[in-house]
Amino acid sequence: MSIKHIFLFLVLIYSQNLFSRIFQKENKVRKGFKWIRKQLKNLNDRIFGPCWKAKRTITNSPSEESDVYNIDTAIFFRKKKKNRKFKNKALSRIKKRVESKVKKTKRNIVKNLLN
């Protein structure tokens, strides 16, 4: 074996080692991002969790108030969260939003009838 062959062999070993390190780091980074995403999602669920359901189930007509207040039951049937303080805050926020929505729709209906 000449010096050239030995040199190429060493370069090959070094490059393989380098690539394996890069791939290991990439996997760690990927796992890290996955973990961060998961934590953010959990936090988002804790604070704003029920809101996305509320947005879907809010109805425009005040005659369907029963449907509007079914939001509360939909929220309570969700998985029980460890931290209830966040949940209660979110619930009160949703109730206020729903009540204001109902008032607005009633007002609009009255305006339409008068005009």
Automatic annotation (TrEMBL):
Tell me the protein's name: Uncharacterized protein
Q: Which residues form the signal peptide?
A: 1-20
Mind listing the UniProt keywords for this protein, alphabetically? Answer: Signal
